Please model this.
Amino acid sequence: MSAPTESHQHSLVLAMDYRVPDPGKVWPVLQRSKAALAGLGAHYVLVYTSSREAGRVMVTISLRSKDPILQVLRSRLFLDWFDSVGLQDIPAIFAGETVEKFTLADPEPNGAPGVIMGAIARVDDVPLLVSRIREALPRFADAGIRNLRVFQAFDDEHEAMILQEIDTEEDASRWIDHPDPVNEWMGESGVGAYPPVFVGRLAHLMRIDENA
Amino acid sequence: MFVCLCNGVTSQTVADAVAAGASTTKQVAKACGAGSECGRCRHTVRAIIEATAAPEPKHRKGFLHRG
Model:
């Protein structure tokens, strides 16, 4: 799958996972960049902080843009963020679209937020993976998975990002240590450009009004 | 994943360059442009070189970690 270059507006999700000396700086930098984010077409920015590795954060940005992906990624905004949080080595950035969402448990009002597990990896066949996940949903629910999203990269049809919300840290550990046979992505994350499986919690969410 | 933002080079393109014989960040930069501008993606390029060269996939224990 090649990166879309057509002029009409397209939706995409960017994800970046990195370590910084002070993760507390990430959110203020993003808040200060709100106007620039709106200019890029961003409508949601989510910041997750790792519960296992000090300083590790994962940021996802949902945006609608008329610009080609490369033009979005070349925005000075990203390099400025990395500079502002003291990051010299820039992380690889996932760029793709949502291909499937599964909700296994309705969110309980006032219920405790779940633990987020994020993985980016190469898989054999993204549609087949989605189909296998669908068949395995009862097992996923038994393991404590509340919801799951599968994203497919624009630049590589074999590359997927899987974000899962699971009940507790203990459930996350069990899921990672004893993955379901469907979870082929678990063994592929942490290789080459792909970060290891991220485990953490949603720390901040920014909704950006398109008309702002 | 997009590794080099300056030149819009993806991890797959870097992996292809490594598979074609590039074994250093300089050789990768020459082959596909990744890391040839600001150079801040060389850490990731190096990780791809190591993963591609390793007989078994090499997991990134040192993932962007500073001591």
Q: What stands out?
A: The interface with chain B takes residues 18-19, 21, 69-70, 73-74, 78-79, 82, 87-95, 120, 153, 155-156, 159, 188, 190-196 of chain A (CB under 8 Å).
